# Entry
Amino acid sequence: MAVSLFPSSLLMTAFLFSSMILFAFPTMIESWQTGATTTRHYQFDIKMTNVTRLCKTKSIVTVNGQFPGPEIVVREGDRVVVKVVNHVPYNISLHWHGIRQLLSAWADGPAYITQCPIQSGNSYVYNFTVVGQRGTLWWHAHISWLRATLYGPIIILPKLGIPYPFSKPYKEVPIIFGEWWKDDTEAVINQALQTGGGPNISDAYTINGLPGPLYNCSAKEIFKIKAKPGKTYLLRIINAALNDELFFSIANHSLTIVEVDAVYVKPFTVNTLLIAPGQTTNVLLTTKAEYPNANFFMEARSYATGQGTFDNSTVAGMLEYKNPTSLSSSSFNKSLPFFKPILPALNDTSFVTNFTKKLRSLASAQYPANVPQMVDRRFFFTVGLGENPCPENHTCQGPNGTMFAASINNVSFVMPTTALLQSHFAGESRSVYASDFPIMPLTPFNYTGSTPPNSTFVTNATKVLVLPFNTSVELVMQGTSILGAESHPLHLHGFNFFVVGEGFGNYNPAKDPARFNLVDPVERNTVGVPPGGWVAIRFLADNPGVWFMHCHLEVHTSWGLRMAWLVLDGSLPSQKLPPPPSDLPKC
Ligand code: C2O
# Structure
C-alpha cells in the first residue's frame, strides 16, 4: 500500500519548484510500510538529455532527464531502495554522500572502491537504511567527473512526531550549487590527466541548475524564492560544485545556521556562510516583517586559495517579495529596486576561519555529541599537491614541465581496476592493493615552510590503512605548501567525525592537543583543511567495509588526493559486513 510521506511543508516545496523549474517530478515510485520501517523505492534511469544554459545547448548525463536530479525524501529510520539503470555510454556509479551505510558498504558507491561501475545497459539496486541521521545530504555520481551533472538532494526528515530543535519553518527550499561547463567535463579531465596540466575551469556557477542574470545570455535562467513577509524558511544548502568552495549571502537578510552534514548544530547567525564541495548546511531565513517594496539577490562565488586559475564569476538568484495586492502582473516587477549582498574577498581565509570556529555540535541530551574521549590509534597525514615526472618523449603542462599530482603522506592513490571491497571480501586482495598505507610521512619536512622538501615527486600506489573493528581514531590532516598552500575539503565515507581542533602552520603534538574541543566539536563528513594549516578529527571505526577518503575538489581527487580505510569485521554477527548483493556489478 502506498503511504503519504510528505508533510505539507515539503509539498509546498515541491509546488514552489514545479512552478519554476523542472525539479520536483515525482520519481519515487512507491513506498511500503512493514512494521516500524518504511521502504522508499526510487527508479533512477541514467540518460542523456539536452539542456540549454548561457545560450548553448549541451547533451548531459541526467537521472530521469532531470537537471539537477530528483530529490530523495525519507524519514530517519527508513530503508531506501534505488534501482539505477544505465542507459548512457559511460560507466556509472552513484554515491549517497554522508549516509553512514552501517553494514551496507556495498551500497556506498565510489567506483573501484566498494563496487565496479554499472556498465552501459546494466543496472544495480542500491539498498540502505538511514540510521541516526536527519537533515540534508545529497547523492552524486562517483566516477570520473560525471558528478558535474549527476547530483541531487537527499532530505532526511526527523522520525514521525519528532520536531526540529528549532521552530517549524513555513517552507523548506533546497538550494544546490553546481558548476556549469560549456565543455564536456569528461574530455576536460581526461585531457588534463594526459598533459599533466591544470584542467579548464567552469563557465558559471548555478543555483538549482540556473546561473542567473550576472552571466551573458542567462537573464532568464534565474532561481527565485517567492517570499512572503514575516515567515521563516528552511534553506537546505548543498555544494555540488566540482572544484570550488563557495561563499553565499542574501542581501539585507541574515542566515541562522542550524545543521551541517545532517547533524544539528548550536544555532548562530551570519550574513555570509562558506560551504565546501561535499558539505551541506541548513539555515533559517526569516523574511522581512512587511512587503519591503524591494527584491534581494542571493549570490555565491568562490573562496579560492590555490595558485591556479579558477572560476571567479558569481551566481545570483532572487528573493522576490511579490505583493499580491500590488497591480504589477509580471512575474518580476522590474520597477522595484533590488539589493545585492556584499561577499568576502575571494581569498578571505580569516573570514573562513572565523566562520568555521562558530560551528559547534548541538550536544544536547536528545542529540549528544559522542566524541571519542580515548584514542586507540593516532595518525598524521600530510595532504597537498606534488608532481610526477613527465614520461619520456612527452611534453607536460604541469609545474616546470612535470605532471601535477596530489597525495596523502606522499602516496598518490592509484585507482585499481577492480573494486577494493570486492577483492577484500573474496580474499583476493593480494594483487589489488597493499595494506601498508603510511601512518605518518616517511620523510618529515617543514610542511608549511617556504622551502620545499628535497623531492616534490609523489609515489603512486594503491594502499589502504587497516583498522580493527571499533578502533577509536584520531587523525591530524596537515596541509602542505608544496606548489602553494591550498584549502582541501576532505571527505570521509562511512562515518561522521568530530572536528576537535584546527590551526595554521605545522601541527604541534606537544602543544595543540591541550586545546582540543572534546565537549561540543562539530560533527560532519567533510572538513576543510585550512591552507597552510591542519585539522584534527576523531571517529570510531564501527562500520566494517572499505571507506574512501578524499579531497572533494574533484581535480585534486583526480590527481590522487585520496586513500581508503579498511575496517575489519567485529566478532559478533551484528558487526560483520553481510555478503554482497547478487546484482553487484562486475568489472
Ligand atoms: Cu561526495 Cu567520495 O564523495
